Amino acid sequence: MFDAKVAIGTWSWGSGINGGDQVFGNHLTQTDLQAVVDSAMANGLNLWDTAAAYGQGSSETILGNSLKAYNRDDYFLSTKFTPRFAGSGENPVADMLAESLKRLHTDYVDLYWIHNAEGVEKWTPMIIPLVKQGLIKHVGVSNHNLKQIKRAREILNAGGVELEAVQNHYSLLHRQSEDDGILDYCHQNGITFFSYMVLEQGVLTGKHDAAHPFEGDSNRARTYNPMLPKLNALLAKMIELAGKYHVAVADIATAWVIQKGTTPIIGVTKQHYIADTKRAISLNLTSDEMKTLETLADQAHVNTQGSWEHSMNE
């Protein structure tokens, strides 16, 4: 159903609450990001992931404006309903979707997510009529544990709608969805697993280490800089493999999650990263290389679980 091997993420676009400036320390303009969109579309990377919560809608606005020149059939839009920002109307899911559609300049979204599991019983049924109205083509859940995924699927199925995708934090440094059986469940039931924070907000790009920490006072710098000294061995191995395969270090992390049977969401902020992302799709690591990376990641003993994430086994 989802043919794309990689999705382009836009969490780091926009500004304000949960926006690129506060989370990542980015200050990107529409012009900067138009070049990213144009390069991605030219390279066949046309699955775009955003959310109403990213920068209070500003990520959707930038993405929608950047895609206006393209035919709607030529790209695939993924956005999200976030329970904590729900309004008080009769159907807050419909209300948030309507605002997203305006910002994205479209009358339907290809893939719509319930962004977290705060109220599975309350919010999941509200998506069903929106699918039947043609406003949503496919449904997914994000930041849900296995029990919550199964319950959301039951609710949707009872209304004649399929659960077609799951999106969770998944990377070399955070493999809880694998450990708790979510990946296996998705593979067994034809549900596409989208992995986000694959590069751990830039930690797994090889551009930062203990001697080259993130600058500034962003959430990213405060969270990841203390971890960098523990990642020396893992990053050294990734740099070695990048040299062997003539790719960027980030491509090693991306290829790893692809080979684990997931569709990575890669946050791209600069045009030249598009070529790197495309290369990762055709990169094949050996089973020994995969295992070595996992062992080194485990030995780092870092916890990259986000403040918004609940333990998958709760």
In short:
By secondary structure, the protein is α/β, with parallel strands linked by helices. It contains 13 helices and eight strands.
Describe this structure in words.
One of its GO terms (cellular component) is cytosol. This is Aldo/keto reductase. Keywords: Oxidoreductase. GO terms for molecular function: oxidoreductase activity. InterPro entries: AKR, AKR_Detox_Biosynth, NAD(P)_OxRdtase_dom_sf, NADP_OxRdtase_dom. The protein has 314 residues and is of the alpha/beta class. Helix 2 (30-42) crosses helix 3. It is built from 13 helices and 8 strands. The protein has an 8-stranded parallel barrel with strand order 1-2-3-4-5-6-7-8, surrounded by 4 helices. It has a single domain (7-205, 250-285), classed as Alpha-Beta Barrel (TIM Barrel), CATH 3.20.20.100. Helix content is 42%, strand content 13%.
